[in-house]
Amino acid sequence: MATPGTPGPPESPAPQPADIARVPSLTIINPSGNRSRVLVDPLPFLMGRQGDNHLVLRDNRISRTHARIVREKGDYFIEDLDSSHGVFVNGQRITRHKLSGSDRIDFGFHDSYRLVLTFEEDEIHRFMEQVAAPPSSPGAGNLSKLRSLVEVARALQSSLSTGDVLAAVVDAALAVTGAERGFLLLATGDELEVNVARDRRGAPLPSTDLTVPRSLILRALRTRRELLSMTFNPEGGVLPEMSVANLELRSVVCVPLIRVRTGSLQDTLAASVHDAVGVLYMDSRLSAADLSVGNREILQTLALEASTILENARLLSEEREKQRLEEELNIARSIQRDLLPSQLPTDGWFRAAGSSISSRQVGGDYFDVRQIAPDTFACIIADVSGKGMSAALLAALLQGAFLFASEGPVLIEDLMARVNRFLNERAKGEKYATVFYCTINRSGELRWANAGHPKPVLVRSATELLSLESTGLPLGMLDVAAYEAKTLQLAPGDKIVLYSDGLSEAESADGEFFDRQSFQEFLRANASTGSAELHSRLIQTVEDFTGGAELADDITTLVLEYRP
After folding, report:
1. Cα Rg of the chain, angstroms
2. 545 neighbors 514 (Cβ within 8 angstroms)
3. Among residues 439, 472, 437, 442, which one has the least CA distance to residue 456?
4. pLDDT at 124 over 80
């Protein structure tokens, strides 16, 4: 059985069909002849017998990662990934091949899997030809049915909105079955909401006529049937639902719209309400629906086309959301970079070296070093709660607050209290920041306040490491908070290592963290080095520890050195 590797993400708002026409799908024909369909997403799309492929082909003769499909300049190509038995397109062995609609893909054995590539527009042309063909039997000669089906095909082929396409699907379903009312209900969580409601004349139903037996529809989905129909005897018998009796229904038809991304035939047959994109529902008060064999097939075709359109729309909407988030993260990274000082003092009695390495999510870390008097430097490291754009903007706001509040002579404890009040007012207590702020003068006096930030380490020698403890709550948590400032005398050669909590959250491939013990061992081993070298070695050590893996949080480090 062939199955896709990973289920799709949650539903998103649907875009226009014109945007999604070139999304291809693969019809999978397994060795038993059963068929299923999967969309070619994401790209590159990997195929093979190994479980982490996007399409898993359970045949031991197929290589672990046998082939892949890629997209270049709007065209799709299949590539053989050095497989043992090759990739064949339309009977010809290929290394790399540009794909077209209806291409047949084989994997070296006639009794193994076969894939057939389909583009949406190819399916639409096929559908138009099928429904516009002359009727082969009297039962299939209803011109109104054919006219409605052609309208569906035209809607699929045009640039009409998704809503127009779905309305055409409902109209065609009504024409096929002869039902009086038709609905397309889309899944929203565990609920089904009416998206389209039409009568047999193709007119929207009034708001007073939108009642459907929802519990019956949900039950139909849970029975895991491809198509469910019920006919009720108005003159007697037990009705399955009170709503059916209240609506005076004679017959109902439910066709689930199953998420195409599921891929395998077994998954489709085992579909539950949680697997459904929605339901195509029809009912009648006067007569039973016409569900001859041909009409059942047409209904299932309509449902498949609607499901594919909705799934393609969801994928495109998801891709657009990813692009939007990536653009937002790039802006956040730019803001974060601009917060960092362009130059740090590298010679004289006071020296500094620092950096901030962004994680995938981008946090609210920043540091700053500036000279506030001829013989005094002020240094800050901060970590704002949250991720992304909001954290970057709040970090910029925090930096501005410190710059403004530190103008002129001011005690550190008063400075922290002012900024705390400002941040609490602006963020309304919903955001906060851990901050370590200190001043160092030429005589070696260190004054600091620590608002909940990870404890910086004073490195005096390989045997003497001192932690600069917290002296107050993170800024912004309370509208009024007191902060204590502490004083310490530095000795020549002393270094202070400041860092964000991303350092302790750095994780190795074995799942171990760069904890405080690892950090202290590093500091003891490198206690004799200067600030620049110590910083460089620390970053390299962390990179070696993580093996280049994606970071869980930003890692910001700042090394200060007193060298009178």
Report:
1. 33
2. yes
3. 437
4. no
3: part of which helix (H) or strand (E)? Answer: strand 2-4
Q: What is the DSSP string of 542-553?
A: HHHHHTTPPPSS
pLDDT tens for residues 391-450? 888 888 888 888 887 877 889 999 999 999 999 988 887 889 999 999 999 999 999 999
* Token couple for 456: 């910086």
Pick the CATH number of 2-120 from 2.60.40.10, 3.30.230.10, 3.40.630.190, 2.60.200.20: 2.60.200.20
401 token code pair = 């607050």
Q: Which residues pair with 72 in a beta bridge?
A: 75
Residue 356 CA: distances (Å) to CA of 71, 152, 362: 35, 56, 10
- Structure-token pair, residue 357: 């390495």
| Residue 348 to residue 346: CA distance in whole angstroms | 7
Pick the CATH number of 340-562 from 3.50.50.60, 3.90.1030.10, 3.40.50.300, 3.60.40.10: 3.60.40.10
Other CB atoms within 10 Å distance of the CB of residue 503: 24
Write b or e for each residue in 234-265: b if 16 or more Cβ atoms lie within 10 A of its Cβ, otherwise e. Answer: eeeeebebeebeebebbbbbbbbbbbbbbbbb
pLDDT exceeds cutoff 90 at 219: no
Quick one: tokens of 543? Answer: 């990179």
The per-type count for the chain, helices as H runs and strands as E runs, is 11, 27
What's the length of the chain? 564
The terminus-to-terminus CA distance of the chain in angstroms comes to 74
Please, where in the chain does CATH 3.60.40.10 lie? 340-562
* Backbone phi, psi, residue 372, to 5°: -100, -10
Rounded Cα gap, residues 231 and 221, in angstroms: 17
Name which residue leads in pLDDT, 351 or 125.
351
For the segment(s) 121-316, the CATH number from 3.30.450.40, 1.10.1200.10, 3.90.550.10, 3.40.50.2300 is: 3.30.450.40
Between 542 and 462, where is the model more confident?
Answer: 542
Residue ranges of E strands in 331-463: 350-357, 364-373, 376-384, 433-441, 445-451, 457-461
**Which residues on adjacent β-strands are paired with residue 293?**
none
Question: Helix/strand/coil (H, E, C) string of 412-428?
Answer: HHHHHHHHHHHHHHHHC
d(CA 496, CA 270): 62
Alpha helices in 135-254 (DSSP H): 143-157, 162-177, 214-222, 242-247
- Per DSSP, the three-state class of 219 is helix
What pTM does this model have?
Answer: 0.54
